[in-house]
């Protein structure tokens, strides 16, 4: 008889003081992109049949910041953590996780205390912040490199234009192209300075906006370079269409990247910028090609000059020039 009582007493002693067991999580992280923050607290061995048997308290730096009193079915949150709440409907499944808005999320150790009738337990989770760059380092480089490359190629076209096609008729156009080109260069440099690698911010989003939107000026510049040099050919039309498509891709990519906190559409934006630069390169190569062709296939004027030169040469008059 006595051993049995002893066993019962021992048993009740063991189970009466039984602790609630938690799924331990050492820490959780949030980033710029989390709008709400969830600090996990899972009890594995809930036995309560109703939430009125449960009592949940969340502690931060020795102060209770949130209390759920199951008996009264009432939640109370501290002023600094006014958005804090738990999902009462999940409580019987053991989930006492604390949810709050990011603005209330102070970094540090949060302790979850759960009481269920006579059983209780607690667990501590550290809330951490992780800085996540908006774009990856490689994406950052490409986003800046492609527009700068495209601008350098434009200056190459501009150089050919001034060297090979200069005439009084085109001077005014060349000055306008120069001004527009300088303007574009300045905008893209300012954009690249604002677009420093780092977390999403208004500053680097506007930097990206400057860079991408202003590359549209290149289309108009390239069109004017072609028109000033030799007018439209089917090849220059194809180059310009390619560039417009690249620009559309880049702008769509820009909108998608700015709308989403995690820019999954970075590759779309970058391929758009790459196509713009490629079209600029094709334009330069084509201009160079046309310019060198024009040297060999000469206009009629030369046909008169050549016999004249031959005549002068035969008379030994070349030295007089
Ligand atoms: C606790 O963790 C175990 C595995 O470690 C998992 O199977 C279980 O679903 C978790 N419980 C809760 C409530 O998350
Ligand atoms: C932040 O968001 C990520 C992705 O949605 C999620 O996995 C993570 O648990 C969140 N962090 C916190 C502390 O809520
Ligand atoms: C507790 O109150 C909420 C509304 O505040 C209600 O939806 C829920 O059913 C109540 N739970 C119990 C057990 O009374
Ligand atoms: C949280 O607790 C852990 C472990 O006890 C400790 O290493 C860490 O420094 C604490 N964090 C803060 C912000 O107090």
Automatic annotation (TrEMBL):
It is a multi-pass membrane protein. The keyword Aminoacyl-tRNA synthetase does not apply. It is found in: Cell membrane. It comes from Oryctolagus cuniculus. PROSITE patterns: IG_LIKE. GO terms for molecular function: thrombospondin receptor activity. The gene is LOC100355470. Keywords: Cell adhesion, Cell membrane, Disulfide bond, Glycoprotein, Immunoglobulin domain, Membrane, Phosphoprotein, Pyrrolidone carboxylic acid, Signal, Transmembrane, Transmembrane helix. GO terms for biological process: cell-cell adhesion; positive regulation of cell-cell adhesion; positive regulation of immune system process; positive regulation of inflammatory response; positive regulation of phagocytosis. This is Leukocyte surface antigen CD47. Gene3D superfamilies: Immunoglobulins. The chain crosses the membrane at residues 141-163, 175-196, 208-226, 238-262, 268-287. Monomer. Interacts with THBS1 (via the C-terminal domain). Interacts with SIRPA. Interacts with FAS/CD95; interaction may be enhanced by functional activation. Interacts with SIRPG, UBQLN1 and UBQLN2. May interact with fibrinogen.
